[in-house]
Amino acid sequence: MDTFRVGFVPGVEPDRFVRRWRERERRPLELVLLEEHAVRDALDDDQVHMVLARLPVDADGLHLIPLWEELPVAVLGTDHVLTLLDDLGEDDLADEIRNDGPAAQAIETAAAGTGVALVPMSLARLHHRKDAVIRVRRDAAPTRIGLAWRQGLDDPGAETFIGVVRGRRAGSTRGDQERARSTSPSPDKPRRPAKQPDRKRSAARSRPGRRR
């Protein structure tokens, strides 16, 4: 029996989908960890049948179902002045160095006292460090995870996995790939922490800190 292969990017936790798949299928399911830049190549080269990808991706020739949203956060060193605040806005981050590169590297640099790492909460938790602090970005747009696969994919496993990620019960006859493409589930809206009093924010800005 051939294996159905599903890629996923760092920060996605696909274990719950494996359990649901096994309730429906005897066919083996293989999970393949992919870096974000490798998602399109993995699909084009038939390394995987489908991918749980962080959007946006190059969608030319692909089908795509948006799934859930990810909370945007900033990761800072523990002694950074902005850790005095419970959440951060773009005005708070305006003068900060924004660390580029892979999330793990950006977070490591921030923890060492240089700049901030702006990442989804899922990646901040994946690369959690004791010498770093996470703060929610209250006015930043969330990122989103979606399910992507090539147009023309002819594999019954695709229909099964669509049902898995959309939470349909085992044995449900609802929908096919066309129905799944034409409707999108309601996103899980992240809760935003309450805005803090201006006096606290003003104190953080006036206190000497590691501004870069």
TrEMBL record:
Residues 202-212 have a biased composition (Basic residues). Residues 188-201 have a biased composition (Basic and acidic residues). Keywords: DNA-binding, Transcription, Transcription regulation. One of its GO terms (molecular function) is DNA-binding transcription factor activity. Residues 165-212 are annotated as: Disordered. It comes from the Bacteria. One of its GO terms (cellular component) is protein-DNA complex. The keyword tRNA-binding does not apply. PANTHER family: HCA OPERON TRANSCRIPTIONAL ACTIVATOR HCAR, TRANSCRIPTIONAL DUAL REGULATOR HCAR-RELATED. Belongs to the LysR transcriptional regulatory family. This is LysR family transcriptional regulator. The lineage of its organism: Bacteria, Bacillati, Actinomycetota, Actinomycetes, Propionibacteriales.
